[in-house]
Amino acid sequence: MKKNYLFILAGFVVLTSYSQDRYLTVKSQDSINGVPEFRASLGANIKLNGYYDVFGGLQNNDTFNIGLIDVFGDDDSGSFKMDMYQTQLKFESTFMTKEGKKIQAVVEFDFWGGNGHMRLRKAYVEFDHWQIGQNWASFGDEALWPNIMEWEGPPSGIWVRSPHIKYFNTIGNNPDWRYIIALDAPITDYNKYGEIEPLLEEANQVMPDLVLGVKHEKDWGHFRFATIFRNITYKFEGEQDNFFGYGFSISGMLKKNRNNFQYQLTGGQGISAYITSVGGFGYDGFPTSSGGFKATPAYGGWASYEHYFTQKIHANAVLGYTQFFTNDIQRYLITDESLTGEIIANGDVNHVHGYGIVNVMYDPFERMTFGLELDYGIKKLEASGVLNNSILDIEESRDAMRISFGLMFYF
């Protein structure tokens, strides 16, 4: 077949009305097995993110992250903000080899890099049962996302992105069953969280995270199970060592017409870096009073239901829960003003995050959605230990409420 790259460079723009296709698409004239030899598209997901904090101390946070609620704070002032930083740009191309195999490449950005700066979300190549590059972490279920306006998601969700090398294939010759084996870049973060400060230092990681998963998919939806195994290197008081982390995720979706029910259960030890509202704060492990080191247990789950009342009006309800705790932690710092500068020793810390959302959405046109949403969350902190040779017990909780709204347009 004759290649016509001049035609490709000239840019044959195809306008299509299919809901999953981009309007701006370039295709080659030549084809292989009825599929264009080359196809590329450029698209955007435009999103206005607006929110009003009714109370709860999340006034300075762009997302409704329950983990960032200051349980000792008392600022319940209202706050109104709008931005366009959640807007995404996506470049996608597909190449067909002479043997009829497809090579797909994706690059995606948003403007969440701080003050509207561009940030890389995805960049990967997929071919012949392999995906190499940065995409949703292999431990999570990339097919899931509750249809909500706020951008954090339930506190126990797994929506981090990481570079990885992933192999996927069907089980036997049954296309309904698929499995993955992946090596993901280790995700660790030793920034101090504030309420707990075990004085860890950042250390270079030497092992990727191993993820194994299996998925069953039919017209009614899908079911997925995944496990993760981690070897996490840390440095404490100048000494470098490592500990083992592991976890599981059970997730799925049930569909009937346009209505859907989504769910995910997650649990394990040393997997906090992957869990929304906990990830990024150095909670994968902690030093114990006996001089050892433990992986932090964490577990939780979320569920959502979307119902279409008409072709244009639909509503969503979401519930989420996360808990993580440390037993016999060597030391931690509580940020209450009355305890500022005091180190609590040989204690236990328990965190619980609860999350709930209801919204209503209206689709006036294809690809356009308006949404109005009520977000509510609560964070509970229980801590005990020894302070100045006295037993100290702390129980604090604080809730937050936000009204989110916005416009989403996809082309």
Give a written overview of the molecule.
The chain has 411 residues and is mainly β. The chain has a single domain (49-88, 104-410), classed as Porin. Helix content is 1%, strand content 60%. The protein has one helix at 5-10, and strands at residues 13-14, 24-27, 31-32, 35-36, 38-55, 79-83, 88-96, 102-110, 119-127, 130-136, 161-171, 174-184, 200-201, 209-218, 221-236, 239-256, 259-269, 285-287, 293-295, 297-308, 313-333, 343-362, 368-387, 390-410. It has a 16-stranded antiparallel beta barrel with strand order 5-7-8-9-10-11-12-14-15-16-17-20-21-22-23-24. A two-stranded antiparallel sheet has the order 3-4. The longest helix is centred in the first third of the chain and has 6 residues, at 5-10. It is globular. The model is unreliable at 1-19 and 190-194 (pLDDT under 50).
